Amino acid sequence: MSFGGGLMSVGHQGIAMAAIMGALMGVGLRWIVTGGANVAGKNIPLLPSLGVIALGGVIGAVGGEPVSGMWWGAQEEAAWSELTSDTTGYTDGWEWDFTYFEKIPAQFQRPEARGTKKLSEVRYDIRENNLVDLRQHIYDIRINHPDDPNYKAALDAASGELKKKYDAVLEKLGKEAWQHTKAEFELDEKLRAAFKLVLTDLAGAPTSDIHVAFKNSSALDAPEGHEINLASEVRYVETRLGLEVPKPPKVIDPGAAFSPAYDSARRGAFIKVAGEAFQKVFDATLLTLKPLDNGEKRDGKFVLEVSSHIRRADSYFHYTSNTPGGGKILNGFLFAIEVDWELRLLGRDGSVMYEKKVSSVPGEQLSIMPQDSDPEWAVYSILMDSAYYNYSREVVGNFGIEPPAPKTQFAYSNYGVTGK
What are the tens digits of pLDDT across the range 70-125? Predict the structure, then answer.
């Protein structure tokens, strides 16, 4: 009986294995036959008794594979029925491994078994509200099984659940948008419509990344007619403040304030401000703002492109410091700047889903907290710090998401570039 069971278990492995198990089964049958004959007082000669072993081998070789196939088919059917009967999410992947994949030989497993196991795992994580693992399932299917129809049900279930989460956030933003109570920024419905298309895509995407790319340029040459405004500011300092102005008046050099190193640091501040605002309504599994490195390929990625062009304006303002005796001294004159911003949302194919241009004048509502270690051109850097901060707030507000609190006090930040 033991070797008969073994024949059913391993007979599918081929004629040789089936014949061996059949012959071993024949040994057992021979013992039964010769033992029964002895009890009856008869003696079966050795050579004929060995024929029983040979018969067992023949039976195994001829019938082992089909018998084993039928037996494993029944085992597979029972395991399949048990595992797929649960659609509520209580059956996890380990049960599939223990009951099916580690037990049923590979040749009897169904082609859709791996995909059905994945569906079971997805249902379990939906029940547990485990969004991190749901995103990981989508990543696994998109990367490792992109064209396998057996995984479609699992992909649809996982992406469908994430889409529900996105829809819930969008509905909340539609009802409780920041502008409905504060009205600080205007809701940009075109931006929100494009953003909704992005979120619909992200529901079934391997990652939740929206990449942020930056472009920066500047034109710091003195504009035509600036001398008139400089002369006007000089007269103000001399007549209203009573300070002596050197001839020619000193215009403070911008130093490293507009350098690539400082601009790069401000980009990080933009990512931080915008990212933290988005995280209040989207966790990292649903949406992540990720910087796009220089030279990094954009193919297949959503890109939020932020472009800034710094222009030197024709106006000036004076820069003074307090003396120990309570008076003031003139450090020089600072030229005003204006920043032209352009925001573009690019689809995975590089198409422009949204674009908008605005201009800002940094420093209109700004309080500077000076430090003794500040370089002379620190104010220029502070102006750009405030410009990036305020623009990031505006972008967040246009989405309908509550931006961080306004910031009017700034101090100089040394971003690793020294200068006097």
Answer: 777 778 888 899 988 888 778 788 889 888 998 888 888 899 999 999 999 999 99
Is the bond preceding 248 in cis, omega lying within 30 degrees of 0?
yes
Residue type, 318: H
DSSP three-state, residue 151: helix
Strand-strand pairing, 367-368 and 409-410: parallel
pTM, 2 dp: 0.76
Q: Which tokens go with 36?
A: 């029964």
Whole-number Cα distances in Å, 206 to 118, 180, 382: 15, 34, 39
Relative to beta strand 328-346, strand 303-322 is antiparallel
**What span, in angstroms and rounded, lies between the C-alpha atoms of 289 and 287?**
7
Three-class secondary structure of residue 84 per DSSP: helix
Q: Three-state SS for 320? A: strand
- pLDDT tens-digit series, residues 229-263: 999 999 999 999 999 999 999 999 999 999 998 99
Q: Amino acid identity, residue 391?
A: Y
Cα angle for residues 184, 189, 192 (degrees, 5° grid): 95
Burial grade of 112 (CB within 10 A; 0-12, 13-18, 19 or more)? middle
Is beta strand 352-360 parallel, antiparallel or unpaired with respect to 328-346?
A: antiparallel
Residue 165: CB atoms within 10 A of its CB come to: 18
DSSP string for 188-254 = -HHHHHHHHHHHHHHTTSS--EEEEEEEEEEE-SPPTTHHHHHHHHHHHHHHTS-----SSPPBPP-
- Residue 288 pairs in a beta bridge with 209
- 3-class DSSP assignment, residue 417: coil
Q: What share of the chain is helix, strand, coil (3-state, %, to 5)?
A: 50, 15, 30
